[in-house]
TrEMBL record:
The keyword Cell membrane applies. One of its GO terms (molecular function) is transmembrane signaling receptor activity. The lineage of its organism: Eukaryota, Metazoa, Chordata, Craniata, Vertebrata. It is found in: Synaptic cell membrane. Belongs to the ligand-gated ion channel (TC 1.A.9) family. It comes from the Eukaryota. The keyword Glycosyltransferase does not apply. Residues 1-168 form the Neurotransmitter-gated ion-channel ligand-binding domain. This is Cholinergic receptor nicotinic subunit beta 3. It is a multi-pass membrane protein. Pfam families: Neur_chan_LBD, Neur_chan_memb.
Length: 271
């Protein structure tokens, strides 16, 4: 999952089956041969494409062989690497749950010519490899009949696979959230330091710079969207405001501490 560009890359095997009555034969007339494997470019194939493609490569380009049975049943399982667009919701980052989809359908045939049916309501994930950052919570497939404005009487079919993925937040907890909490604790220690030590401002500025670096890291990890501000971003902004407030108070404290009758006159309202 590429959160910044909002792209999900999937390595899939797209199993397709259909029947072509023009490719039937009698096994008894051909030495008992019931199955053959031929190049897929030699026969008709459904032109399935990924509608929500993110890199401009819509079609399946892998030229693999098909399994042809004597009954005319054809099985074609080409491998493909799909890059689909997925709108990333960053509100609860890094404790977020993303719902991404892959919309597959024919490009030139309408629903009256080619009917696309999924094998089941769930895709086969028997060869799915777990990621160190995401875990698959749920997955479904739906078949849709779509009528476009150009041709309201002609149905178009597509199959949409939805994947619900939960982010594993341990990496961000250890490397981002816990350090930010420690920086917040250090901000409180600024008021414990003696004013004569001369390190109050040094500690405050160091904490502010560290928080700024962490905020820049978060900005690089999430997409540039104005739809929502992630919770971790709100927390870091609140912490930064807290640190800036402590700096202002520290300046006032140091200024007051170093005042003397030779440099300042006591205001009348203080007297």
């Amino acid at each position: 999952v590429d959160e910044v560009n909002q792209i999900v890359t999937s390595n899939v095997r797209l199993k397709q089956q259909w029947k072509d009555v023009n490719l039937q034969w009698n096994p008894d007339e051909y030495g008992g041969i019931k199955k053959i494997r031929i190049p897929s470019s030699d026969i008709w194939r459904p032109d399935l494409v990924l509608y929500n493609n993110a890199d401009g490569d819509f079609a399946i380009v892998h030229e693999t062989k098909v399994l042809l049975e004597h009954t005319g049943m054809i099985t074609w399982t080409p491998p493909a690497i799909f890059k689909s667009y997925c709108e990333i919701t960053v509100l609860y980052f890094p404790f977020d749950l993303q719902n991404c989809s892959m919309k597959l359908g024919t490009w030139t045939y309408d629903g009256n010519l080619v009917v696309v049916n999924p094998d089941s309501d769930r895709p086969d994930l028997s060869n799915f490899m777990e990621s160190g950052e995401w875990v698959m919570k749920d997955y479904r497939s739906w078949k849709h009949w779509v009528y476009y404005a150009c041709c309201p009487n002609t149905p178009y079919l597509d199959i949409t696979y939805h994947f619900l993925m939960l982010r594993l937040p341990l990496y961000f907890i250890v490397n981002v959230i816990i350090p930010c909490m420690l920086f917040s604790f250090l901000t409180g220690l600024v008021f414990y330091l003696p004013t004569d030590s001369g390190e109050k401002m040094t500690l405050s500025i160091s904490v502010l710079l560290s928080l700024t670096v962490f905020l820049l890291v978060i900005v690089e990890l999430i997409p540039s969207t104005s739809s929502a501000v992630p919770l971790i971003g709100k927390y870091m902004l609140f912490t930064m405001v807290f640190v800036i407030t402590s700096i202002v108070i520290t300046v006032i404290v140091i200024n007051t501490h170093h005042r003397s009758p030779s440099t300042h006159t006591m205001p009348q309202w203080v007297r």
